[in-house]
Amino acid sequence: MKRFLLAPLLVLTACGTPQEQCIGGATRDMRVVDRLISETEANIARGYGYETVTVFMPEWVDCTPHPTAANPAPPRQMCFEDVPQTSRKAVALDLNAEAAKLKSLKAKRAQQAKAAEAAIRQCKAQYPE
């Protein structure tokens, strides 16, 4: 099932002009830092952050054995299986530490933007549209 969901994603990833793909590769780290900046700004605005928590809960699942030549119609069986359940939990933050982290991320973003300028120019020269 996962393979069927992954195939359209791979097709979409292959879309885009060579120039867009080149620029996307050159600015991948900047997009990660941008996401972290947005997340940190939202944490500061809210006054708290979120933590992802995964717990395993037992659930009844169908664990009927597969039919075989010796047992072509096995009786249905149910059993407990631990199934992960993920949720977000609010957590307290040190807002001063978050502000310092935001300042550091913005400085890193400025460095990355400066470094990416040359790579973007090279991509545009190599793959003109």
Describe the fold and architecture.
This protein has 129 residues and is an alpha+beta fold. The chain has two domains: 16-47 and 93-129; 49-67 and 74-92, no CATH class. It has helices at residues 2-14, 18-26, 28-46, 95-126; strands at 48-62, 78-92. A two-stranded antiparallel sheet has the order 1-2. Helix 2 packs antiparallel against helix 4 (95-126) and helix 3 runs antiparallel to helix 4 (95-126). The model is unreliable at 1-5 (pLDDT under 50).
Key features?
129 residues; alpha+beta; 2 domains; two-stranded antiparallel sheet; 4 helices; disordered N terminus
Describe, in short, the structure shown.
57% of the residues lie in helices and 23% in strands. The protein has helices at 2-14, 18-26, 28-46, 95-126, and strands at 48-62, 78-92.
